[in-house]
Amino acid sequence: MDDTKHVPHTLVTRLTSTVPAAIAVVEVDGPMAVSLVQKHWRPNFGSSELKVDQIRYGVFRIDPEGSDHRNVDEPGESIVVHRSGEECVELHCHGGAIAAERIIHALVHHGAARRSSSEWITSRSEDDFQAEATMALLQATTLRTTMILMDQWRGALRAAVRSIEEHLHHQRFVEAKTAIAALEQYSELGLHLLQPWKVVLCGPPNVGKSSLLNRLLGYTRAIVHEQAGTTRDILAESTSIDGWPVALVDSAGIRPTNDQVEHQGIQRAVQAIQGADRVLLLVDPVQGWCREHAEILEQAGEAKTLVVQTKADISDRRASSVPSHLPVTLVSNTQKIGLDLLLERVSRSLVPAPPSQGTPVPFCSRHLQLLDHFSCSTNGGNTRFPLFRRESTKLHRRT
User: Fold this and answer.
1) What predicted TM-score, i.e. pTM, was given to this entire model?
2) CA count, 13 A, side-chain hemisphere, 265
3) What CATH superfamily classification does 197-350 receive?
């Protein structure tokens, strides 16, 4: 009988994000952590004994005894093992989608219980702000957003909220309103630290939307063809602009059509425009501004629209038909003219005033609800607020 089966309180947790990376880290924590790991682990040399604070390299055998009818000669997963405590072992493996899951599945099969990363984070965080920041950091995709979230993890937002609470408690409502406004100015940015800004490329057919998408991404993603109506559906691709996460969206050319398939693509394009954070409205200098441009501008609104005149290699002058009050960026997809300027303008449009280091930034819906709650209380009263849903419950690793 396998004496490691059904062992209580031995937990296995993936500590790193599920986003593919160079390395993934799996923690095994509990009374049978060491024996469970040693059951599968084969060192590249020396004893298989794991000593505290030693770092060892070897192979994790997924099925060391062939109990689930797999090939016992299976190579397994290369891992670096660190026994960080008497009852805690960290396994560092390939950061793709498969390796960590195979290791976790094998450990659960032999008696460990799986624990979610959010549960692990909550148990080791000082308060909700730190827990939320840690979970957000696991999903961050750019260095710039990571640095902002690190400021919140270190306590920038917590300190700002505590200050507001103190102002309200002592009925300093003017100061409270000022502090609330300082946080609210970054609310849209905060929500987009993880959720990409949606930037839609739109216009009539054959103005260069797909070509511009490919240029901005740096590789060929969309089909480019001189035939009008080639793009018939929404095509979105994740990237970053000046460190901000962005989903670039190619859309069908908007024009009157009797083709039912193309018509559906145009309808989806209109929906994408209406739901966009920013719209790049493309104009061909030869075709000029037309009724479709005016309709798109009305749908999107001037505040979130950037007019882009393509084919600057053919005509480096602003098309006279574009309304004079609209700023225009001239670009060329073939000669890469104006692309850096366009990216700069998109970035400034999305985030006109990036926060400096250490700035408190609300970054999830709970924070905005808390600010709304504070705002409703600035008209008077002496109310204490539940700043944290729970007190500090930081659990120190077993040593």
Assistant:
1) 0.76
2) 26
3) P-loop containing nucleotide triphosphate hydrolases (3.40.50.300)
